Structures are given as C-alpha cells and as structure tokens.
C-alpha cells in the first residue's frame, strides 16, 4: 500500500505492509523498494490516486505482468475517478472504443 | 508481395497454407469472441466492485478523519503502530482462454479475530468504526485487485488476438488467394502455349512428309 501517511495508517492495522509517502520522489522510491524486494513477496500494490500520476510509467509497465497487480484506490479526499479511467482504458484497448456508457 | 515460381508444387504448397490460414482465422475469431464475452462480464463486475470499494473507503476515511480530529496524531499513530495480524496472500493462476489470470486468497495470521490493536481507554470510538469499515471493504479490495488485473490481462490478449485475426483476414488470406490465382493462370497459359506449339509442329511435320496442308 502506497499512499499518504494518513491514508495508509488504517491499512497498517489491517495487517498490510504500508509505505507512507509525501512526495512523488518518495512514491517512486517506495515503488522501487516494493518491486526489488527479494522473492517478490508482493502480488498486489494498492496505490493512492494522489500519487498514481507520478508513478504512471511504472504502473503502465506492470499492466501486462500477471504477477503484480497495481490497483488505484481513492485517497482521503475522495475519488478522482482514476480507477474508473483505468477500466475505460482497458475497454478501449480491447474493443477499440469506449462502450462503458458513461 | 513475394513472387512465386509458377509450378504445381508451389501451387500445392500455397493451397495448403491457405487452408491453414483459413482454419487459424476461424479459430482465432472464435477465441476473440469468447474472450470478448468474458471480458464484458468482468468489466461489469469491475465497475460494481470499484463503486463499492470507493464508497466503502470513503466511509472508512470519514470515520478515520473523525477519529483523528479528537485524537492527537501521535496517539493515533501509536494506537495503530503494531498491527495484531498480518495478511498472507496466496496467488494461484487460472487459465481463461489462454490468459493466465491471478486468483487471490488471503488468510490472516496473528491469531485473534479481533483486528483492533489498541486498548480502548485512550482512543476514540470512531477509530474502532474506521477499522471495522476498512476490514469490511478489504475483501472487496482483494476481489477488485483480482478482477481488475484479469481485465487488464484480457484486454491485452483481446487486442493481440484482434490484430492477428485482422492480419489473417485482410492480409495473409487475400495475398495467398492472389498468388494462387496468379499461378493457376500462369499454368493454364503454359498449357495453352504447349498445345498451340504441338498443333503447329504437327502441321509442319505433316507438310514435310506428305505435302499435306490442313
């Protein structure tokens, strides 16, 4: 879980490994740390939407990798619709046009 | 377009390739249609899950905000610093139309059912609320991860299958047909030429032997 410290703190209590970040640089450092950890212990990385933009190239790279799922979740200040945008992108890629209908 | 020597052998080879290409085209088309059908299901699921996850999280964050309003940040951090459990994630892969999609199952280790890692005396009730909501939404989050990843992988596969289908339909098969047509024509032409030559030769031979003209 990568996100602002007040977002990830709750997930820490759920037992997730959390990487609190405060800047784009920290976010990409955290991401690097996650993918470079030995034995690939992580299969899902939740990224707070706020930091997703700075990580977009890395996220893009792992899109076709079945071993690591990167899922955007809304941050504390509400959803920005980036998760839905990812869905639309996938549909557009598969079908050729956006047919999700909103 | 490659040029082919117009012989029967090449013609046969090309016909074989055309057959294979047509069969492949049909199979790939079926694969694409089936993938598309499943993909649409998954997209629908994904949409629903994302909605419920986003709503659930927003609620959880609201509670968390309420908690952090009454508790000092240090206290909050202290309360949540040592989680009672860890989440173990198991990944298996399922093959859906040649796409390996992940399936996640998770277990918690650390013993207790109780997720609250702190004593109640110095914490706000909103924090309990927030954690409860988060753990409720977490199952959905896992499922969302699974569905979303499947969706991405399938989108890639559909794209490449579609490209292959189109390449066969609009390039490979017409090319082969064109070449086969060309060779058939060429062979026919050769045959005609031979026939005409034979007739001509026959004429010449007859004239020479018997002074015979047709």
What key attributes describe this structure?
heterodimer; A: 102 residues; alpha/beta; Rossmann fold; two-stranded parallel sheet; two-stranded parallel ribbon; B: 214 residues; mainly alpha; Helix Hairpins; two-stranded antiparallel sheet; 3 helices; 74% helix; rod-shaped
Explain the overall architecture:
The complex is a heterodimer of chains A (102) and B (214). Chain A has 5 helices and 4 strands. By secondary structure, chain A is α/β, with parallel strands linked by helices. Chain A has a single domain (2-95), classed as Rossmann fold. The radius of gyration of chain A is 14 Å and the shape is globular. Chain B has a single domain (8-204), classed as Helix Hairpins (Orthogonal Bundle), CATH 1.10.287.3240. Helix content of chain B is 74%, strand content 10%. Chain B has a two-stranded antiparallel ribbon with strand order 1-2. Chain B is mainly alpha-helical and 214 residues long. In chain B, helix 1 packs antiparallel against helix 3 (125-210). Chain B has 3 helices and 2 strands. The radius of gyration of chain B is 36 Å and the shape is rod-shaped.
| Order of strands, widest sheet of chain B | 1-2
Residue share in helix of chain A: 40-55%
Q: What is the CATH architecture annotation of chain A?
A: 3-Layer(aba) Sandwich
CATH architecture of chain B: Orthogonal Bundle
Task: Give the full name of the CATH homologous superfamily of chain A.
Answer: ATPase, V1 complex, subunit F
Task: Write the SSE topology.
The complex is a heterodimer of chains A (102) and B (214).
Chain A (H helix, E strand, L loop, with lengths): L1 E2 L1 H10 L4 E2 L3 H13 L7 E5 H4 L3 H6 L7 E5 L8 H14 L7
Parallel strand pairs in A: 1-2, 3-4
Chain B lengths: L7 H63 L2 H9 L4 E11 L2 E11 L15 H86 L4
Antiparallel strand pairs in B: 1-2
Brief account:
The complex is a heterodimer of chains A (102) and B (214). By secondary structure, chain A is of the alpha/beta class. Chain A contains 5 helices and 4 strands, in the order E-H-E-H-E-H-H-E-H.
């Amino acid at each position: 879980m990568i996100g602002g410290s007040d977002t990830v703190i709750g997930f820490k209590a759920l037992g997730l490994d959390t990487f609190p970040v405060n800047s784009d640089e920290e976010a990409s450092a955290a991401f690097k740390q996650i993918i470079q950890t030995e034995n690939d212990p992580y299969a899902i990385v939740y990224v707070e939407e706020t930091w997703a933009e700075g990580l977009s190239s890395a996220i893009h790279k792992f899109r076709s990798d079945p071993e690591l799922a990167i899922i955007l979740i809304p941050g504390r200040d509400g959803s920005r619709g980036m998760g839905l945008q990812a869905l639309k992108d996938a549909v557009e890629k598969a079908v050729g046009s956006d047919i999700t209908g909103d | 377009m490659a040029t082919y020597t117009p012989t029967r052998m090449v013609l046969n080879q090309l016909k074989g390739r055309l057959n294979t290409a047509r069969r492949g085209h049909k199979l790939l088309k079926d694969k694409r249609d089936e993938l598309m059908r499943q993909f649409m299901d998954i997209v629908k699921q994904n949409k629903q899950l994302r909605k419920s996850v986003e709503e659930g999280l927003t609620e959880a964050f609201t509670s968390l905000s309420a908690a952090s309003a009454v508790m000092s940040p240090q206290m909050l951090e202290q309360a949540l610093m040592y989680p009672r459990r860890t989440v173990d994630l198991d990944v298996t892969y399922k093959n859906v139309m040649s796409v390996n999609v992940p399936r996640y199952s998770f277990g918690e280790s650390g013993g207790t059912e109780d997720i609250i890692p702190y004593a109640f005396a110095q914490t706000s009730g909103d924090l309990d609320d927030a954690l409860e909501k988060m753990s409720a939404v977490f199952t959905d989050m896992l499922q969302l991860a699974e569905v979303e990843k499947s969706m991405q992988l399938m989108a890639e596969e559909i794209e490449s299958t579609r490209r292959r289908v189109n390449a066969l339909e609009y390039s490979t098969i017409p090319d082969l047909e064109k070449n086969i047509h060309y060779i058939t024509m060429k062979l026919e032409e050769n045959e005609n030429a031979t026939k005409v030559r034979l007739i001509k030769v026959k004429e010449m031979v007859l004239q020479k032997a018997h002074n015979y003209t047709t």
